[in-house]
Amino acid sequence: MESFGTVDGPGIRFVAFMQGCPLRCQFCHNPDTWNPQGDCQYELTPQQLLEEVMRYKSFIAKGGVTLSGGEPLMQPLFAREFLARCQSEGLHTAIDTSGAYCTPNALAVLDHTNLVLLDIKTMNPALYPVLTGARIENNLRFLDELQERGTDVWVRHVVVPGLTDDDHWLHELGRHVARYSVVKKIEILPYHTLGAYKYEQMHMAYPLQGVEPLSAARTQEIRQMLSAYKPTL
Questions:
Q1: pLDDT at 149 over 80
Q2: CA distances from 14 to 3, 92, 158, 180 (A)
Q3: Cβ atoms < 10 Å from Cβ of 205
Q4: In angstroms, rounded to a whole number, what is the distance separating the alpha carbons of residues 191 and 104?
């Protein structure tokens, strides 16, 4: 849990990182959240998590609450109840998701979600399974669901040198999301190696060993390029 988050949605936010994820993204910096039965720091009911959130309500009143992970929609019943309780307290709610789940239970979470931070890993259908271990279809279908519901979206895109740092596919991303009125921003996330130590601690090989972080200059260039389609962060 992070009580003073500033990078997972607008304003200052309480961020809860949930256990379990169906993807195995090469650039993931939270591999400790992959296993649904992993070493959880907390096991809480939705009400107990809300009580923790409410300790910080004065700080997050103009921000809100974000469920991240892992993949929060892997625990849809918990997520739906928790976000509903947050909204009943007047808190803005967000989920950070890959859109990997389009089940009825997962989509029902959107009934109590003000903003979706949708991670689009790549628009290249051949590269997507290489990067994530999954197919791209649900990721794109999820955006269609959000458009139909009228739910605000910030698209997140991690740019990795040698993998997703490709002008053609970056423009494809811009052209694709430009069709959706619910997409308010494209958030460019430069690849970094801050999570590499977790792989070492877990005795796992780091998939992107030797790949350098994306430079600040290239990050700004990409943001400028994609600003032709949507506002960028």
A1: yes
A2: 5, 10, 22, 28
A3: 7
A4: 33
Question: Where is 197: in which H helix or E strand?
Answer: helix 196-201
Q: Which of 92, 74, 96, 127 is nearest to 29 (CA)?
A: 96
Give the strands of the sheet with 183-190, arranged side by side.
2-5, 13-17, 64-68, 93-97, 115-119, 152-159, 183-190
Range(s) of the domain holding residue 185: 2-226
- Mutual orientation of helices 216-226 and 167-177 as an angle, nearest 10°? 40
Angle 99-117-222 (CA atoms, 0-180°, nearest 5)? 105
Pick from 27, 19, 23: nearest CA to 159: 27
Length of the chain counted residue by residue: 233
What CATH number should be reported for the domain holding residue 136? 3.20.20.70
Q: How many domains is the chain partitioned into structurally?
A: 1
Confidence (pLDDT) at 42:
83
Span 6-42, pLDDT tens digits: 999 999 999 999 999 999 999 999 899 999 887 767 8
Secondary structure element (H or E) that encloses residue 153, with its range = strand 152-159
Asked if residue 21 belongs to a domain, the reply is yes
For residue 232, tell me if it sits in a domain. no
